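Reviewer comment 2.1 asked that we show a complete input and output for one of the modelled complexes. We chose the pyridoxal-5'-phosphate case, as it is the one discussed in the main text.
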Amino acid sequence: MKQPGFGTRSIHAGQEPEPVTGSVMIPIFQTSTYAQKAPGEHTGYEYARTHNPTRAAMENCIASLEGAKYGIAFSSGLAAITTCIQTLKAGDHVLCTDDVYGGTFRLFERVMKKFNVEFTFCDLSKPENFEKNVKSSTKILWIESPTNPTLKLLDIEQLSAKARHKNIRVIVDNTFMSPYFQQPLALGADVVMHSSTKYLNGHSDVVGGILVTNDSGLADEYRFLQNSVGSVPAPLDCFLILRGLKTLHLRMQAHQKNALILAEYLSSHPHVESVIYPGLASHPQHALAKKQMSGFGGMMCFRAKGGLEFTKSVLSKTRVFTLAESLGGVESLVEHPAIMTHASMPQKIREALGITDNLIRLSVGVEDAQDLVDDINQALMG
Ligand SMILES: *Cc1c(COP(=O)(O)O)cnc(C)c1O
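Response of the prediction step:
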């Protein structure tokens, strides 16, 4: 049978009506344990850290959207990333892109290094850096594309082929694009990781994470760690993410439409030095963006024409855009990476990555485009 389309799967995958009552929406199974008929005689459900039907529906739905068989959910994106590293042992090495999410950098550098797992951060948007930095002990290649916040792209297909050749597991943080615009497993990756806090849920009211894969052995290992380590998501949060997923395809189209309008508008604004958006022909990797993504998403950055003081004044004047960390919700957010999301990164590294004092990041929401344009304009014009 032909696989249903993305929108159909986002609404139905993993979600049969509940068998007892016929409830069309998957109920919030708010329970910690399940009754047994006789000792050891149970329905397959014993204890809620191990199994929860609301969680299972959400896992199966996201797996289906990524073209995967298995999904394993966690209490946050960082809990999902932690689990990826917990499959390693002391002495193993991880090769990671340098322009990585700030929290991922902090987890690798300041937590996981203590357990003698080794990390190398390098600019993997230049594929030759793979050969320069790979070691015989490399077990995981960690890819984020587009990167955060400067929206560099990594060639997922090319890097995955190189890693496969050396038996290195490829994990892609697909948070920025969502499965609607980018399908890393089809490009050769082994695992996709999401902070479902962002576009998957889409309404800025949940923190969550997930790993998806087609590798049954790896899925078993992640499932074992999910239960053994215990950073599982709450049933209500799973319900909310499931509800958000139903409009993922519609939201992503709307995010992208607004982001393109804004990117084009800001490109010729007198108080803007430059705009970074993969959907603009001016993006240095626009061709790769068109090759490996089916759209360009809702994240963009621009550099204000001015120093820190001017940039801060712009950030404090927006009214429709809320000044806040995070991204991927229906509402527009603006933030200052150097002071906010990437403050955990040493200043020297920030500067080398282009996270300058005049860099502003936008998570473009799905409000009316003209209101977003007017808002940024009035903030820039002071
Ligand atoms: C937010 C985010 C994370 C971390 O996820 P949490 O849900 O906040 O733990 C990881 N990667 C990217 C790209 C993110 O945006």
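Residues 248-267 form the longest helix (20 residues). We note this here for comparison with the apo prediction described in Section 3.2.
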